[in-house]
Design a protein that fits this description.
GO terms for molecular function: metal ion binding; oxidoreductase activity. It is a single chain. By secondary structure, this protein is an alpha+beta fold. It has one domain: Jelly Rolls. Helix content is 33%, strand content 16%. It contains 9 helices and 9 strands. A hairpin with a 2-residue loop joins strand 7 and strand 8.
């Protein structure tokens, strides 16, 4: 995807900085604004700040009372939060573990191997960072691999050929699982919005699905940096898989930053700007 008239500027991978065993953070990564609200988010121990959890099996249940109750929870989560976690989502747990393992291997590749699937001028796909258009721009403390998964006609053949067969196989299967989950959620949202579910199918059945793999290396002065800048997602739904149970993801609720407590096996769903 082109970023406009100014192509992205290539920046070093953060993991390569860490390999140099740095003790001071390069200026481009240091945030000068107060980050206390990010590093010390609101206490989420009260029910008011418990991110909703939607059970997909209950949502699809043949028992009307159970299905209607879960549908109401979904509607409320979308309306009040714009975020929720999903459990019993139907994507095989062994596939997810395989995918996690292969993603770790991808980011552990030697730099020379990563350069074979590096971002090209004017394109965000491949290894790199997003939206870097100025040499004065502050950078996120993270590395990224970005790839289009669906529709298949929009894939970059050189990127799929450049990753390992095991990762390619896992991404293929995970991509189909995500599409199925997406269509279930959009169909139920359509009903809550008094839309014809077929209309949602027509809008998104040939949807653009892109995968952004992020790696956040340990930082010697974590209080000075941000893993990823605050943002909203432009698409319909963003479905987030956290590779471990480390807290880091935060969402904005009533003007406060609320940490997302990882639930083993769950996926996090963000309702994007397109749906809102």
């Amino acid at each position: 995807m082109s970023t406009g008239s100014s192509p992205p500027i290539v920046v070093p991978l953060v993991l390569e900085l860490i390999k140099e065993k740095i003790t001071e953070i390069p200026d481009r990564y240091i945030r000068t604004t107060n980050l206390d609200h990010v590093h010390h988010p609101i206490d989420d121990s009260t029910a008011e700040y418990n991110i909703p959890v939607i059970d997909i099996e209950a949502l699809l249940s043949g028992e009307p009372v159970l299905a209607d109750s879960e549908s109401e929870k979904l509607h409320s989560a979308c309306q009040d939060w714009g975020f929720f976690q999903v459990v019993n989502h139907g994507i095989n747990s062994l596939l997810i573990e395989k995918l996690k393992s292969e993603i770790h291997k991808l980011f552990a590749l030697p730099l020379e191997e990563k350069k074979k699937i590096w971002q090209e001028p004017g394109d965000m796909e491949g290894f790199g960072q997003q939206f870097v258009i100025s040499n004065d721009q502050k950078l996120d403390w993270s590395d990224m691999f970005y790839i289009t998964a669906l529709p298949t006609r929009m894939r970059k053949p050189q990127l799929f050929a450049g990753i390992s067969p095991l990762l390619r196989e896992a991404l293929e299967a995970y991509s189909l699982g995500l599409k199925n989950l997406t269509m279930i959620l959009l169909g139920k949202m359509a009903i809550a919005l008094k839309m014809d579910s077929n209309e949602m199918d027509e809008l998104f059945s040939d949807c653009l699905q892109r995968m952004k793999l992020n790696y956040y290396p340990p930082c010697p002065k974590a209080e000075q940096v941000m893993g990823i800048s605050p943002h909203s997602d432009a698409g319909a739904l963003s479905i987030i898989l956290q590779l471990n149970e480390t807290e880091g993801l935060q969402i904005r609720k009533d003007g406060n930053w609320v940490p997302v407590k990882p639930i083993p096996g769950a996926l996090v769903v963000n309702v994007g700007d397109m749906i809102e």
